[in-house]
Amino acid sequence: MANVPSKPSIPVKKEGSSSSGLFATLAIPLCLVVAICIFIFVLGHPSHYKGGDPANEPVDIFGTVHKGGVIVPVIMSFILMVIVFSIERFIVIGKASGTGNVDAFVRKVQALLNEGKIEAASAECDKQKGSVANVVKSGLKKYREIENDPNMDTEQKALAIQKDIEEATALEMPMLEQNLTIIATLVSVGTLMGLLGTVIGMIGAFSELATSGAPNQAALSTHISEALINTALGIFTSAASIIMYNLFTSKIDKLTYAIDETGFSIVSTFSSSHK
Hints:
Layout (H helix, E strand, L loop, with lengths): L14 H29 L17 H6 L4 H27 L4 H13 L3 H11 L1 H17 L7 H24 L2 H31 L6 H57 L2
Helix pairs in contact: 1-3, 3-6, 3-8, 3-9, 4-5, 4-9, 5-6, 6-7, 6-9, 7-9, 8-9
């Protein structure tokens, strides 16, 4: 009877990845709703205008921002998204780092591997937890499974351990990078929406200048203010997005380097001790 070829293993989608996707689906419209409510009920409150009439000049920064027009709540929702997703990434990446310092964990595991204490290194992974520890523990588990396999030579075993570490890394990394694309997108979208608000404000200003006779100074200043407010909010959104994106990218690169460094140590230890 012919052997039926086994199907290639399909990586199991981590629960954290789906929960992050659900979080993004709920957070984006919620941020927009909250921004609109703030724009209407907080910034647009009559107390921020002379005589309590929104048709008059604003008396504080809240009324001034409210004069920025309909683009303002959209940009405000982007700012809220940057804040919300930054907090979410801080929590997720913090959990991925584990309970202790990653560098100290890597050094301790390397020291135990050099001494041939595989079980002790695995125990350290249980203490550390997080993505780095998960990948290292997977590699150590493979180490023990194939160590005495008579059907493979040392080179094949080392390659098998390395492949297992790479597969474990491939499962962990998407969870770390989840929702970073949203922050990266806000870098460009925030600037473009600010520019759109600027253009709308300048169109209104030039329309006032194009009227016959002396232009309405109050209306002209309102349109110029609208343009500048949208410009400022758009620049702030873009700047905040760039800072947070680079910060999280740096943290993820640090975790990736720790995984690669420890994985190399596992393979090297196996190769040197099974010559």
